[in-house]
User: What shape does this take?
Amino acid sequence: MKIEVDKNGFYGKFGGAYIPEMLYPNIEELKEKYLGIIEDEDFKKKFSELLRDYVGRPTPLYFAARLSEKYKAKIYLKREDLCHTGAHKVNNTIGQILLAQKLGKKRIIAETGAGQHGVATATVCALMGMECTVYMGEVDMERQKPNVERMKLLGATVVPATSGSKTLKDATNEAMRQWINNPVDTHYIIGSVVGPHPYPEMVARFQSVISEEIKIQLKEKEGRENPDIVIACVGGGSNAAGAFYHYYNSPDVRLVAAEAAGLGISSGKSAATTVLGKLGILHGSRTLLMQTEDGQVVEPHSISAGLDYPGIGPVHAHLFDVGRGEFVAVEDKDAMKAGVELSKLEGIIPAIESAHAIHALNQIKYGPDDVIVINLSGRGDKDLETYIKWGEY
Ligand SMILES: *Cc1c(COP(=O)(O)O)cnc(C)c1O
Assistant: This one.
């Protein structure tokens, strides 16, 4: 079965655009125009120039000798941690700001939970001299002060969302409301492969540069484009979608997705959507999400802010549903151990999100000749406080 999006934005049973009528004009405009714009030669040239000169791509594919020795396989790390701003998120925000310019938009809005997507958005708005407003839950603003200050330093306006639980979903509601009120001049930058069609596929395409580069780099190093296994962590799923994209339809490549099990699958404090989630509608798409019996979204938990999301993007729900993806749930404590381990074995302090992908090595089977690529989605600088509180290193 071919993994691809259909014209209505579905991957199998998942996806689509379940939006209030007021948002139709915005979504219709994007749906009609996005492919034409991003496949245009001028766009492609600008996008790849910025990825090279501003983001620092291609990011290295690094053979991790000591990690390989320990786990008895040939392990490569795709170094998204070396991207400007410290993670893969900027690949998408660069793509979307160029798209917004082509659409003639003047203002950018975004929502952010932990602030990482807000920072990546504020960064590209500064780069392009565009007005930027980021909506963020009031509680999250308190918890993530350094990122709030980064956004301000970059020239963005950060607006607190004060309704509900004052976290990500409330910020998303606020951003949607603003978008409905300003459809003509405003582009809404979504930060993962979530939201109504065409966002999931559009974001995946911008992130697909990750697997495009892996193919070329692995060919140089191993004489073949396809590894045996690709591993990536999944919050909404954008870094994983990027790392899997050019391998979706290569059945010889195993696709392993690491979700956050938080304090444990049955603890009531986790974000392991494929284990605990059911079919529902979240942020405008039909997907798997964690919900109560009567359909209320459950507050997720993960020690890593980037994986602290109650759903997964529709493409991942589909990969899970048809058995193309192998999903593992990694607990907080195991991710922390893996983060410390990578720091000591390779001199690379990973983002705690990425440490979930490293720990997946302990939760899957493979052989000594297997070539494994782990997508190291981000660096650990932002997580130093969490490492210090954890204390065991
Ligand atoms: C935001 C983030 C993630 C999770 O987002 P995805 O869309 O699932 O990739 C993972 N790693 C890092 C470093 C992040 O900042």
Summary: The first strand starts at residue 10 and ends at 11.
